[in-house]
Amino acid sequence: MNKNIKALYEIAQKETRKILGLMSGTSLDGLDLALCEVSGEGENTIVKIQEFETVDYNDDIKTEIRKVFAQKTIDFQHLVLLNEWIADLHAGMINDCLAKWNIPASEVDLIASHGQTVLHAPKFLHQQEKFPNATLQIGDGDHIAVKTGIITLSDFRQKHVAAGGEGAPLAVYGDYLLFSKKGENRIMLNMGGIANFTYLPASQNAEEVFVTDTGTANTLIDIFTKQFFPEKSFDKDAEIAKRGTVNQEFLSELKSDAFFKQSFPKTIGQELFNHDFVNSALVKLGLQNISAPDLLATLTRLSAETIAEAVLFVVENTKTPIEEFKVYMSGGGARNPLMVKWLQELLPCKFEKSDVLGISGDAKEAVLFAVLANETVAGGNYNFGSQKGIPSVTMGKISFPD
Predict the structure, then answer these.
(1) What is the pTM of this model?
(2) What CATH number should be reported for the domain holding residue 65?
(3) Which PANTHER family does this one have (predicted)?
(4) Which of 58, 88, 189, 294 has most Cβ atoms within 10 angstroms of its Cβ?
(5) Based on the domain organization, do 203 and 347 belong to the same domain?
(6) pLDDT tens-digit map of 268-277
């Protein structure tokens, strides 16, 4: 037997596996690294975070990624070079963190690397009938495995697409296994660049679970905060938006986009929600001189309303009163007091940060990829029935160090 296959088999037999989950989102802030102790599998999965760190991307890394990020026309050579470069950077960040934590690589069983998304293209967006849903994450797993000496699982989203999904949101798998609770209807709401949520029914019936993107959360707010205030990367505590007034005509124009009329579940990214999305609406309405506070207030309201409308769609289909639901928030939007205030007004139910469930909201996405890797190696393809957008598959390509 090949020694790597033998090692993988032995890892699968362990009572507890040490898995390093990696996540870098579309905000391009940096790389989240969550070193997890994972025991069990399926509904018996238990995760303890041993270490967590976010390594910020410097301006050079952000600039290089933005040359290809969410764009239809790019320098193809640059994309190829980035695939290896990002992997090498991530491997270096892993090695540095392990050294900082005083943990030898030999003690880490697996790395679960999401990679860096550069393009998300569901059929709704690309509108080319002969082509399927598509998504692309760079940061090759072989490079990470070789540079760290640790078996690496990567490129998780491709199996999701191959099995009929859109490659997102993947949070549903970890959400169900870690956070489902008998007797409580839960909405696991992640408000990163894009907002998405998982509905976890009180029945714990996997076939009733639902997941979807809702649209922008922080993406547009961040883009235009930087445009008006180059020294700021985001509207901290909604300080700017709080000074503004929502422009209802502008808000209605933004919400008239075909994406918001598309049936659930659905996925999206900055391929739609970008400068052009907002600027075209401003030009159409003659609002090019809108103030920064009014613009950011309107964009914040857009996020809140479209999230709430998506949640209410699910609630209405369950025939359960909204008051019997509980929303658990994570992502940067959970720290935006104006967005949260409006969500609480639009959704009359209880709200909590997801941290109360025992896993930091900042670490949650990296942890979820560790859970996906654990299922691939030691679990199985949990059955979500015929649910649209949640194929019952294991995910992740396996790369050996030698």
Answers:
(1) 0.94
(2) 3.30.420.40
(3) ANHYDRO-N-ACETYLMURAMIC ACID KINASE
(4) 189
(5) yes
(6) 999 999 999 9
